[in-house]
Queue: 2 jobs
Job 1
Amino acid sequence: MPDENQGHSSNGPVASTDRVVGQRVHRYGGVDRVTGAQRYLSDITFTDAAHVAFATVPVGCAAIDAIDTSPAVAMPGVIAVVHADDLPQPVARFGISHRDRPVIATETVNYHGEPVAAVVAETEDEARAAANAVVIHYTELNGVYGLDAALADGARLVQDPSVRPGDDLNSTNVLEQVEYAWGGVGSEGASSHTIIEDTYTFPMVTHFPIEPGGIVAAPTDDGGIEVYSPVQHPYLLQRTIAEVWSIPLSRVRVIAPDPGGGFGGKQTPRYEPLIAFLALKTGRTCRLVLSLEEAFQMMRRSGCRIHARTGFTEAGELTFHEMRVDFVVGAYADVAPRVMTKGSYVGAGPYRIPRVSINARAVLTNTVPSCAFRGFGAPQVGWATESQLDAGARALGLDSLEVRRRNLVQHDEAFIRGDYEARADGRWHESLEKAAELIGWHEPTPLGRGRGISVGIKPGATTGLSQSLVRLLYDGSAMAYAGTSDMGQGARTLWKQILADELGVDLDLITIISGDTNAVPFDLQTSASRSTVFMGNAVLAACEDIRDRVLELYAEATETPQSELAHSPGQLVTPSGAISLVEAAQTALGGLRGEFVGQGTSRLWGTKGHPLGGDAAFYEFNATAIEVEVDRATGEILLTKHVTVGDVGTEINPLQVVSQDEGAAIMGLGHSLMEQMLFDEHGRILNLGAIDYRIPTFNDVALHMQTASVENHDGPGPYGCKGISEGALLCTAGAVGAAVADAIGTPVRDLPITAERVWRTIRDANRDSPD
Amino acid sequence: MASYCRPHTVSEALAALANAEGHGRILVGGTDLLVHLRKDPFAPTVIVDIKSVSDFPPAVEFGAEAVRFGPTARMSEISSDPFIADHLPALGASARVVGSIAIRNRATLIGNICNASPAADTAPALLVYGSTVTMTGPGGERTMPLADFFVEPGQTRCGPDEIVIRVDVPIPDRGHRSAFQRLTRRRGVDLATVSVAAGVDADGRIVLGLGCVGPTPLLTDASPPVDLTDPDAIEGAVEELVSITTPISDVRAARDYREAMVRVLAVRAVQAAAAASEGVSS
Amino acid sequence: MTDSSVHPTSEVAVAVELNGEHVHATIPAHRTLLDMLRDDLGLCGTKRCCAEGECGACSVLLDGELVNSCLVLGAEADGGVLLTIEGLSMDGVTDLQEEFLAAGAVQCGVCIPGQVMAAEQLLQTNPDASRDEIRDVMSGNLCRCASYQRIVEAIQTAAAGRRTDA
């Protein structure tokens, strides 16, 4: 095995050794994580906490006829048993784009696992036993569990039209739809030598965080509430609690312990309003710790079906691309409409295509509401587009790398046209070429193996607001307040690095505070790989603010004209030479001591009328190449090589870049090769739990794996960085699919590409062409 | 709610089971039992932990004609034992793929068969070697071929008041060779989609033990002598032997895939066994 | 407490040597070792995810062997010797833990205590393990951040360091 090539490489300039940015700084909070001292939500002790358990029904769609709580109420330790009738009427609904999710199931159960009643008891065992004793009389309804059922004439509506008043689509199961088009339609066939038309599917998959999660809510003396939840968006949760229960923001304190894995699954409030209600009603601290199964029933990625029609010239240039995309979003909107609009916005990929037409829909079904998940719609749609490019290459007898070279846009060239065009903000050909080089594209493929190369693109955040406070203390230590949730991406490590360089403070003397809305200023959210750019810029600005303030006070204290002073990272330049910023600060503060407080804001306004609400601050671009060996008799796939190259702008911490890139790439293997949520005819999840929902293990990683970066320092974030945390997952499926097709001669169009599907594809191909 | 006891003798253990009136569950490794307990935590299960019983057969005992496994024989010991690797290679190989290291440190061979899953990893190999199961209970000891032991998924011939105290695995004659093949959904720890153990004797007679292709692990009859150097002959023999299978579609695979795979794996297992040097197999 | 050798009890008294100290707990019969450690003994370094032996987050050493503490009853551990991540880290960060940090193996971190326990057991039982053997042995410990390559690197580096020191 070629071990010498393992690991990570970058073509960027070697970071100068006197800067901390660019160094492999160890993770902030790492020591606590390796010693077990890190306190995730379920590790925090609450004195006198009561425990919550949910009662549910074992079907995906049902009318709730009656609920008999008396057996549960009579059980030992039970404090309260609550269902919809016990809440203020009508039962409040909440959500970001659609206020459609009720605090607790009311009248109907709309997906398997939706809480129907909640028990509060003295111990976890007592709560579970009592929840088990709640008798729910229900009538199973004719739920819609798949796209065809949901879209059929006369299909049962997942949401009553009254939930979406005034919505033209409220008498259908289509929650939202969008169309992107440019270049006109109709004449596309004339310029095309070859037209490829096929249907692709992408499975529903679940986030499977190793910390399933939980919620603790405690009433406060002033009539407010504290909510502990490992959420990615503490400020959204604060707003939701405040709005649902009419409490001023100032009395809703959200404490967000570091999420033990987020991946998009811990963004939005779900059960927090209910747990808050239970706490307010009982006057007790109420604690809910979720099982992994309950986490499966709380978060998943939208499944997707894509019908695509694509034209090519004889030379492999794209002439047109049409897509009809249906996202299976589940019972409530969550952020799925946004996943649909954003994912399909880049549906045609980073290519130069004269005519494009994309029609996408978010379709409601009686399944777990889907939410954000690393890649945010782009992996689903990209799977189809990348597969179409490969199908075109095969039909034309062209090399699939060459087809991508011919169509991939150059720097600053538009790949989305029309009224709101988008241009390449990176030199993406460099990533493509590097991936090809790393996998040895031009070396002959060993017998029995196949190779594929694929690219992916995802728009970063299109609006944003991050605020940060930085304090430089008298002794030369510093603190940053930054609301980004540190869920594994290592955000705090980066803030520490920025402070170290900008203030000239030793890394060990820096503390970062996050996860408490009472202490930390507003941050919109931790999503879309935005934080390094948005919060990074806010932290950077706060550091510059401190340097301005040091300069001003130093001028005053030493009676030096401000015009004779200047500052630079870590330094104040005085007429007698440069001194460290800490020394300058101490001189300026004088005998009273005190501290400097800097404030930084990073704001991106949207663009009115833009289909995404604004231009993306940056694009994540990735090229992935994969080599596989296929056992033709069983269909089993062995990954022999897996390389990915990301266009990162600047690596602020190369160690964390490689962790995130490898992690995303391997996570991408999940939906490509093995992961899928399976449902029975009652809408129940068949593989509910770790035994039959399979995610990649150590042994499922490619024999040879390498990630790399292209650094052109051309991003909008600090030091020219871009967001990076999703890129390496965007086109994993495309590369795996192409490699398998190369190996067996026939493409598989449905994910995951399980051994069984490969075997079936080979068998069917042999039937179609008997020799 | 569950209750727990830890008897020190076989008779104490039997008394505890008798008193449990059908709610008794024997605990040794616990790797299956605790999963069941978690799913049904409020049942009045009586957990009878027999790890402290002092008058069981030892975990592993090597006799001249058979290897005897007691209730405490764990997968980790079986998978790393050189004698088993040499003489019962399909058993060693199948014990090696049971769960993770942490699971193999707890899971027992007898627990694996008493759980009576059609996917029990070691069952195909044990069947191929002609293993017998011995139970003890109020009516005394009784011994039966493992092939007769399985009734249906989760159900064996071991009564609720009985304990399986040993499994005897005859050491095959020299000239007998064996191998194990398994198909899973991923390369890391997984349950079997299909598993096959193959034994071939000096005359080329083939016997297969089959997992996940029927309601219980299955044992085929012996084939007539087959020329093991002839792939077509092996394929033909396998085709006959696997006719006893009745696979179903479930969350792990569809029926037709299992039907095809049991054939592929069986041929490979036979070929691997045939290719192994005498007394030692892959 | 009645004699639990014959008469089943719904509460069980458990005495274990935990990280070098003798501790006692009285727990319900069905309580797992994992829940006993976390809820009764207050040691939350051992993490809970799947609770059915598939993820390895709850890995501890019982009588010197790696087990999933979710698949062991607290009652079964009675009389046993337990080492958890807290015990392993008693004298500060070990060489192996240091290599986890240096390799970038720690992302969200929930699986890491279990990974460290499994890796420590691996180093002690097979100090010369190859990359393939490491991958195979560690496959019972899931990491959703998928730091797998980083963890393998950390184990290899720690193993090399111990060989040099030996």
Job 2
Amino acid sequence: MGRAIAISRGRPPLVQIHYRTHDGRSGAFEAKVGQSLMAAAKSANVPGIIAECGGSMVCGTCHVFIDETWFAKLPTAEPMETDLIDYGLYPRPTSRLSCQITVTEAMDGLLLEIPPSQH
Amino acid sequence: MSTTTATLEKTLGIPPHVKPEQVFEFDIYADPRITDDVQGSYAAALRGAPDIFWTPANGGHWMVQRGDLITEIVKDYEIFSAREMQIPRVPDPPYMIPLSVDPPANLPYRAALMPKFSPREVAKLEPHMREIATKLIDEVVAKGECDFIREISSRFPVSIFMELMGLPLEKLREFRIIADNYFNARSNEDLARLGGQIMGIFSDLMEIRAREPRDDLVTSLMNTEVDGRALTRDEILAMCLVLFLGGMDTVTNVSGFTFQRLAEEPAVQARMAADPTLIPRAVEEGIRLHGVICTPRVVVQDTDKHGVSFRTGDMVLNILSQVGRDNRANDHADAFDIDRENKVHLTFSTGPHLCLGHILARAEIRILTEEWFKRIPSFRAKPGARHGFRIGTVHALEALPLEWDVSA
């Protein structure tokens, strides 16, 4: 369902990101356009996103599964990101590191799933 | 400026860019306020100090004790470089890969090492780690006492590390002494000699592995490519140096301090014994309370931040162990509270140099604790025993005599 993007003057627009945990809970959080999906999820205390390295792409603990239809719309991952995902416990074809995804206006309504654990 | 400050400046040689109110004297290697409760006494000693302060000791350097500031500094490598990590500064500082390499150059090395330290590899190692832990604990359980450092925590992670690297286990004590001496070294001469000794160990091992490859890290590094070329011998040795220093000491220290604390917490022990599913949370709480690393950076670009004038060549020591002890980050920070929802700490640092072994370290401490509680559900510190410690850029406990009741 379409939804108007919240825009307040002088501030980056906000989009709504939806998530599901592996044990079936769901929720949503707001993300600022231009920030990383990881940073937005961390600010909103989304459960199961650790991001131990704070977005330096060396830890792989901000791993998420992106809903298939959304996954195809994202820019592709660098080899280092794919490697980190493959070294993890729950790699899937739609896996991404949320620190490597920059939020855009087109991501309003994006759905992601949190893996059972990050390590 | 008061007369006292002026005198202080004159006698201690405080540089003019340091404001008088930013001076707080602290000797990272021998401060008299530090006790066997290393992290607790450290936090108490620095309670009156600014978040960023200058100590005139050890050649004079900055110290940072607040988590968000440390996070900013370790990520801001264009101003705070990792290429020098020796305090006091030495003319020819040790070079370790990837630790001394700033991004983005560190990333290919990191990528080369990551497979062996990944969650997936660590999960594969778990049964073997459990075997080693069981064997070591079984050796002491009937005695009703042990020196936890000497008999358990210096042997368990170090055995795993040595196997991972491909080092001969019978050299364990010898290698531990070299690592300990390295952390006590201050002069360029001693650092070079001990660093040379460590790299000599790996240089010999590389020669052997060139003839007889094995499923170990040294063999794997010899066959790893970065940026489409093989790693050079010097690069592999510079990687082995930091792995050796990290692997020989840090988990030993974190688990040692954690058990020192648990020995004083009978109620926590009782909960962990009754419900082993609490152990991972208890371990994370032990990790929060017992950071053992202070990570140095060198200022490579003059900058004014947070009211501080950082000048090129200033050394900045990030006291990672203080973050978990900060009451602003954790309520009643000194309390051991398994149920604490958000255990804020930087024990493994963060940013591009986040501890490569953080997954392995957590798994090791968890497994050791699980196997210990299965066999020794209740224990205490031997009364009156001094533990002894080493402080500096790595905090260590020297001894931990524990005792427990043995049923007949």
